[in-house]
Amino acid sequence: MLYDAFSTDYDRFVNWPGRLAVEMPFLGSRLRESGARRVLDAACGTGMHAIAMAKLGFEVAGADLSAGMIERARANAAASGLSVQFEEAGLGICSVPSAHRPLMPCSAWETPCLIY
Q: How much is the CA Rg of the chain, to the nearest whole Å?
């Protein structure tokens, strides 16, 4: 899988501090307005959005089809000192508890969106 091979370098190509500074105020406010406490980050990649949501106080889980991306996501969460559940799963076969599914921020294809 392409993203498995790319996973070790992926974070070097994204300005995460700048991107999250722009995106997280919007995502955080939408999640709070909806009353969400638990969030599933679908197609989570290296987990940076999930980790940022955990820093905002949400209980977060992430899923991605790429084993390499999930490995990086777990390492990124550990480096941040946060507990975020990451599972290798496609969107149709997600083993993350259904309690995390009311809102699904998805940054796939570099376009953040909320799926209600």
A: 13
